[in-house]
Specification:
Chain B: Residues 36-280 form the ABC transmembrane type-2 domain. Chain B: It is found in: Cell membrane. Chain B: GO terms for molecular function: ABC-type transporter activity. The complex is a heterodimer of chains A (329) and B (283). With 329 residues, chain A is α/β, with parallel strands linked by helices. In chain A, 36% of the residues lie in helices and 26% in strands. Chain A has 2 domains: 2-225, Rossmann fold (3-Layer(aba) Sandwich); 231-296, 2-Layer Sandwich (Alpha-Beta Plaits). Chain A has helices at 45-52, 74-80, 96-106, 111-124, 140-151, 170-185, 197-203, 221-227, 243-251, 273-285, 300-308, 322-325, and strands at 7-16, 19-29, 34-38, 60-65, 68-69, 81-84, 158-162, 189-194, 206-211, 214-219, 232-237, 259-261, 264-268, 290-296, 327-328. The termini of chain A are far apart. Chain B has helices at 15-33, 35-56, 69-90, 92-105, 108-113, 121-147, 156-183, 187-196, 198-203, 216-224, 226-238, 249-252, 254-278. In chain B, helix 4 runs parallel beside helix 7 (156-183). The longest helix of chain B has 28 residues, at 156-183. Classes of the chains: A alpha/beta (329), B mainly alpha (283).
């Protein structure tokens, strides 16, 4: 039954006047799973999260969270979820601790428990030193961590994170990722929206790609990448004249026709690093001088591009770029 | 996360009051943390007292009082103070408007709405805190008034009634202010809109000039304006000069009319704003 799932949505439609924000969204998140909702600006990610967190009523379709209908049982849904939106929605005049106390009180938790849990969260989110300072003295990263801590005060089993790292500097972003990974390790179900492909790849087991309010692809990061083709071997030659020869060599190990682009020759391969070793030997035997050689897996950027015909609107401003994905030789 | 957070038992006062109190506490802490805002909310009415008492004071005659110039000026100051009180508590609404609009912009309203808390508690807390702040404002104003010669001559109990009536009015207009705040696209617009209606409301009343000095068509409006009846009621309760009242029912029964008007206004605007709160961001 659908009731067992953390999130079950079927045919969700949301119209704002004439604008169709969601056009029949289906979404299932199993308990303990981390699902990344990926799409460009305006794809409907936030609208979907707002519907699931009872802030918006769908125009049509059904959505159940933790087995409760978001329209008819909003309070039950609210008790089961934590929500962290695109802004750090904390009171900036209160201290970090006062914020946590306020949200704990509003969840109707026992005061003693709120006190203990607040300290626990402040400690694990590295906010204990700043705990008794007003939030307006916090950095952007600290505010986001406090915001996330606030949504965890009641230990929700399901967490909605709407672009949790938008606007953060790379260091704070990595810190936020670590915090989210910790929650996931504890068994929290997470639905995460992001326009950063890196982020979805890093955090989510299952990725749902949406565009124009509809699901256009669904699967693990690996499956999505396989869907548009497997690994490619890329060789950069020192002498442009040797490009043709390099292509001939690669043809002996590749599964398809090599492509030459300036001094760079690439070809689809299967077999991972064994192929890489054979290629290096063959190139050496042929006397081809190589300045760079790597085995590259398609990135989610490639996936997004091939699925939507346009790139995700913003580049991930994260330090780790291609290098992390491709196994450099 | 297998542990479940322990939920406390329902307080005797009910969740709405509990949650309202939590939000009010937050709003009151806020005003302590921003002393500048508190300071200017005190300075402004004091400036009004001084301006009206010394600049306009001599020019506005209070019918039935003051044989010579000195007595007339003193009578006007005693007439003026309840007017300033009334105007000041009416302006409490503007703080609610801006406060709600800022909470909306910061995403706090969304967060509150996604909590399993009582509906309307955010608004109950907001209006309660904004009215509570007026206690301090009224205290500072009363001291200023005392210094310039304003005296309470109607007895202690009546004076307490007067202050309570003023606070009830502050609470009432805070609901109007909150409703406006929920309807505004951003805090900047809210701060303009939050004030716009308050000037005609407070000046088209007997706060600073006797209603009898207004043209007939304005007299009718001013007579039914709850600011007029609030100010008249406090004048009577403080034992200050009231001037001569035109023959309108509210002006003959200012206390019951003011209380009734507050009840009706709260009923209308609490309903409107709680409903609006529920779908604020559902454009």
């Amino acid at each position: 039954m659908g009731d067992e799932q953390a999130v079950f949505a079927e045919g969700v439609v949301k119209k704002f006047g004439d604008v169709v924000a969601l056009d029949g969204m289906d979404l299932t998140v199993e308990r303990g799973q981390v699902v990344g909702l990926l799409g460009p600006n305006g794809a409907g990610k936030t609208t979907m999260v707002r519907i699931l967190s009872t802030l918006l009523a769908p125009t049509a379709g059904t959505a159940r969270v933790s087995g409760f209908d978001v329209v008819t049982q909003p309070d039950e849904v609210r008790r089961a979820i934590g929500l962290t939106g695109q802004y750090a929605a904390v009171d900036e005049y209160l201290t970090g601790r006062e914020n946590l106390r306020m949200f704990g009180d509003l969840y109707h938790l026992e005061p003693k428990y709120v006190k203990r849990r607040s300290q626990e969260l402040l400690d694990s989110f590295e906010l204990s030193e700043a705990a008794d300072r007003p939030v307006r003295t916090y950095s952007g990263g600290m505010r986001r961590r406090l915001d996330l801590a606030s949504s965890l005060i009641a230990r929700p089993s399901i967490l909605f994170l709407d672009e949790p790292t938008t606007g953060l500097d790379p260091r704070s972003r990595l810190g936020m990722w670590a915090v989210i990974e910790g929650l996931v390790a504890e068994g929290t179900t997470v639905l995460l929206t992001t326009q950063y492909l890196e982020e979805a790849d890093q955090l989510a087991q299952d990725i749902v790609v949406i565009d124009h309010g509809r699901v256009i692809a669904h699967g693990t990061a690996e499956a999505l990448k396989d869907q548009i083709g497997g690994d490619r071997i890329e060789v950069t030659v020192v002498n442009l004249v040797q490009a043709g020869a390099a292509a001939d060599v690669l043809r002996t190990v590749s599964t398809g026709e090599p492509a030459i682009e300036e001094g760079r020759v690439s070809a689809p391969v299967s077999g991972g690093s064994t192929v890489l070793v054979s290629a290096i030997r063959a190139l050496d035997v042929a006397g081809i001088e190589v300045s760079d050689l790597l085995l590259r897996r398609p990135t989610l950027d490639d996936v997004f591009m091939s699925l939507t015909g346009h790139a995700a609107e913003e580049e991930p401003p994260v330090v780790a770029k291609r290098g992390r994905k491709g196994r450099q030789s | 996360m297998t542990t479940v957070a322990p939920v406390r038992s329902r307080p005797i006062v009910g969740w709405a009051v509990h949650d309202g109190f939590v939000v009010a506490r937050r709003n009151l802490i806020q005003s302590i943390r921003v002393p500048e805002s508190l300071f200017f909310s005190l300075v402004q009415p004091v400036i009004f007292v001084l301006l009206f008492a010394y600049v306009f004071g001599g020019a506005i005659p209070i019918p039935g009082d003051g044989a010579n110039a000195d007595e007339a000026a003193n009578a006007y100051r005693n007439y003026l103070m309840p007017g300033i009180f009334g105007q000041t508590v009416a302006f409490a609404a503007a703080a609610s408007t801006v406060g709600i609009a800022e909470d909306m912009r910061k995403g706090l309203i969304d967060r509150f709405r996604a909590l399993p808390m009582a509906h309307g508690a955010v608004l109950i807390g907001r209006t309660f805190a904004d009215a509570a702040r007026q206690i301090l404002v009224l205290a500072v104003l009363s001291i200023t008034g005392f210094i310039i010669g304003w005296r309470i001559t109607g007895g202690l109990l009546n004076a307490i009634y007067a202050y309570l009536l003023l606070l009830l009015f502050a609470y009432t207009v805070s609901w109007v202010g909150s409703t406006i705040g929920l309807s505004m696209p951003n805090p900047e617009t809210a701060s303009t809109a939050g004030l716009a209606w308050l000037f005609p409301l407070t000046f088209l009343s007997n706060a600073f000039v006797p209603i009898s000095s207004m043209p007939d068509w304005l007299q009718a409006f001013a007579a039914f304006n709850p600011v007029s009846t609030l100010v008249l009621a406090t004048r009577e309760l403080f034992g200050n000069p009231t001037g001569i009242q035109p023959d309108y029912w509210p002006l003959q029964h200012p206390v019951p009319y003011t209380v009734m008007a507050c009840a009706v206004i709260i009923a209308i605007f609490a309903t409107l704003s709680v409903r609006k709160f529920g779908r604020t961001t559902s454009k």
